[in-house]
Each structure stands twice: as C-alpha cells, then as structure tokens.
Amino acid sequence: MARLQIREAVTLSQDFQYRNYPFDRQTVRLDLRLPTVQLSGCEALVEQLRYKETLDFQDSNKILPQSAAWLWDHCGTAGGGCSAANIEKDILIARASLQSESAGSRRGDCQLIFKIRRNNNIFIIKQLVPSIVISEAPLLSLYMDATVPPLVGARASLHIIALLLVVTRANADPGLGTLSSLIWTDEFALVQFFVILAGLVETIAVHALIRFGCKVLAASVDGVFRILLPFVLFPCLVVGFILKGLEQQAGFLLVVVGGLLLFTSGSAARVLYKDWKIQRNRQMMVKKLKALNMESNRSKLTDEEVDQIMRKTFDSFDLDKSKKLEKAEVRLILDAMYPNLGRKQVTTAMKAIQSDAIVYEDFAIAVEEWQKISFGKTEEEQKKRTILGRLGFGSKSKKAIKAWRSAGSKVAKASLAKQSKQVGSSEPNSAKLQTFQKTKGGAPEKVADAAAAFAAGLDKANSVRSSVV
After folding, report:
1. Using CA atoms, how far apart are residues 378 and 186, in angstroms rounded to an integer?
2. Transmembrane region positions (predicted)?
3. Which whole-number Å values give the CA distances from 159 to 23, 189, 199, in the listed order?
4. Portion of the chain with pLDDT greater than 70, in percent
5. Is the pLDDT of residue 128 over 90?
C-alpha cells in the first residue's frame, strides 16, 4: 500500500445565491476525487475537520477565512470555540458518499458539505443603520408646523434630499460582481424610497388642504400621519424585511401585512375620529363662551372659571399651537357665537382685531367687544317690536286687524253719507233711515266694539311696560 501526502491550495468556484445579501446563507460542496485512485477515510477526514473547529486557539489550518467575513451557520464563529453538536450540523458528508462507504464500496470520491453564513455585523453598522436614519429623519420632520410656509419648505426639502441619498446608496457596488436579479438591499432601498415619498406626498396634501381652507381636516391628517408613518409603518417594514433576509417568511408576511393593515385602517379611523373630536370640542367651547353673555350664568362663575373657558376656546381653535389666532380662525369663532349678525355688525366686530394674528389677551378683549355689539343689536330689535308683538300677536294677526279696521271705517263712512242725504227728506224717508240703521247698524257697532277692545289692549300694554321699567 502506497501513501501519498500532497498539500495544495486551490480556488473553487461556487454558485452562491446572493438574493438575501447580506443575510445570505451558503452551502459549499467539496468533491474530493483523484483519477484512477481509490480514496478512503472520508469519515475520518470529517471528524478531524470538526475537531479543529472545536479548539479554542487560533490555527492557520482553520477552514474559514481569518478575516471572519464568513461564519459557521449554527456555531456562529469563524474558527474555533464551536461545540461538537453544532459543528456536526455545519460540516457534513454527502449522503451518497456516506452510503457507499458504509456499504464497503470503493467509489473513490469524498463529497463534503459546509454550511456557512455571512458575517453581517459590519454591514449593519456601516450600511443598514445609516440607511434607517436617513429614512426616519424626513418622517420625523412631519412634526414641523405645516401652517408656516418656511417649515413646509423645510419638510419638503428634507424628503427630497433623503430620496436622493437613498437612490445614491442603492446604486453603490456591493462587490458581488454582476447580478442578474434584485437582492435584499435593492428591495429595502425601494421600501425606503416609497416610504419617504409617502411623507412628501402627505406634506404636499396637507399644505393644499390648508390653502383651500380645510384647516381642521389638514390638522387631523397631519396629526395622524406624523405618528403612523415614522412609528408604525416604517418600523414594521424594516422588521419585516429583516425577517425576510433571515428566511423567516411567515414572520415577514405577518409583520408586513399586519403593519400595512394597521396603517391603512388606523390612519382612516384616526383621521375621522380626530376631525370629529376637534369639531365637537370647538362647538362645546363656543357654547360655553356664548353662555358667558348671560348675566345670571356669569354671576355663578368665578374669574378663574371664566378665564379657563376663554383659554380653552382659544386653544381649541389654535390647532398649530402657536399661541396665536389668525383672522380666519377668529372669524370662525365669531360666526359660531353669533350666526345671526348682519354684515355691519360683523364688520364692526372684526375691527376689534387689529393685526393678522392675535394672542390670548387680544382675543379676550375682542370677545368683550363682540358681547357689546350683540347686546346692542338685541336692544335695537326689542325697540323695533310693536305693542301688538309684545301682546303676542303675530304678523298674520296684525294684517287681519288692519284689514278689519279699514273695512269698518269704509262701512261707517258709507252709512254716515246716506244718513246725511236723508236728513231733509219726508217722514217715510226717516222711517226708512231708522229701518236701515236697524238692519245695517250691526257693522258700525262691531267696529266700535273692536276699537274699544284694541284701545283697552293698548292701555294694558302701556301699564305693563311702565311697571317693567
């Protein structure tokens, strides 16, 4: 028996799958074979390789590179310090070689299998974390006030810059050679791109709603998306795609689909609820503010309670929390408090607003002016009310009484004219006059009775008015 000992360094090409890069796991197959030579001891070779990987000291004869770019799949080490149970899962003999050697046949080859995975710690620190920060920064900029034009421009600029950075980083060469399909980093870059684009679209939509006067809806949409985009949707997509890279398909589908459903349903529900809550809060506070006009109610409230009602009303219309109210917001409060004011009264009331935006103190002064204008309008309306109106007669009753009075006056004039013509006639004519008065005299008598009742009503109204005064 001849023994041949040869040591050679060879480079073997492997068909690696980079789809999950940098979370890819690879299976390396090594087929040892010499022409016309029968090889044996494959199992002994494997046991020797496994034994070296369980040693703690560093040895140049370790299988994996010393740079620690690759790790054993189950052991998680680049060389040494691996347990025997785990290394048996990473260094294997092909089933065909194992069966042939156990059967005693001489095939003359030894097929070995090595299971390794990429060490992605450097990638996570240098590539993944900065990419997440680049995507999260513009989403957090949604907390900038969308009602201030310079801040809206800053939000849009941050989104555009982030989009450019994501595209630039995605086009960087990872050093894997020519690739024929998308890998994990490309898919993750697309996710970043569309999430940042969603933030940019939201900024433009909110600004458009404010320009068209839908400030409450704009505040509701902005308040919802500034929470759901950076803290719900994007984290779910990041975690889901990391699970996909780790070949956890069930977890990937659960997190991504669940996150999308939560984002869609939660955004719609929260926008509607927040819009309803703002409207209800405004109506309630305006109602309380308007109730301060009643002297009886004001006497029951302390100065602190009155100040609290006015301050809460101010805050309910100050959606951007700038501690100022614009003229349009002040006009909304005025219309809600006094919807029946005329144009002159509204113009007079708005004259109390001296600038485009007022603080709380100026708002309190304006409310006092509105109360005076409202009381003045009420007194004028009370002066315009007639005595019949105070007695409870409506407009129809007034028209009926006027028609009744005009008809009675016409009948009275006609009867007096006939009586005057018959003054110089004979006795039979006087008898006819008496007969006419008996038959036709009912109408003047009724007119006289109505006039007497009307005069009594006037006297009663005057007495009531004098007693009130």
Report:
1. 71
2. 152-170, 190-212, 224-243, 249-273
3. 28, 15, 7
4. 72
5. yes
Beta bridge partners of 326: 357
| Whether residues 87 and 149 fall in one domain | no
Question: Could you say which DSSP state residue 126 is in?
Answer: I
Which span out of 54-68, 259-273, 363-377, 431-445 was modeled with the highest average pLDDT?
Answer: 259-273
Same domain flag for 299 and 260: no
Sign of CA dihedral 438, 439, 442, 443: negative
Are 398 and 376 contained in the same domain?
no
| Closest by CA position to 277, among listed 211, 202, 207, 217 | 217
279: nearest Cα among 325, 216, 341, 342: 216
Give the torsion sign (CA, 139, 141, 144, 150): negative
Q: Are residues 184 and 257 in the same domain?
A: yes
Give the residue numbers spanning the domain of 38: 25-119
Task: Give the per-residue pLDDT at 58.
Answer: 60
Residue 283 within a domain: no
Average pLDDT for the chain: 77
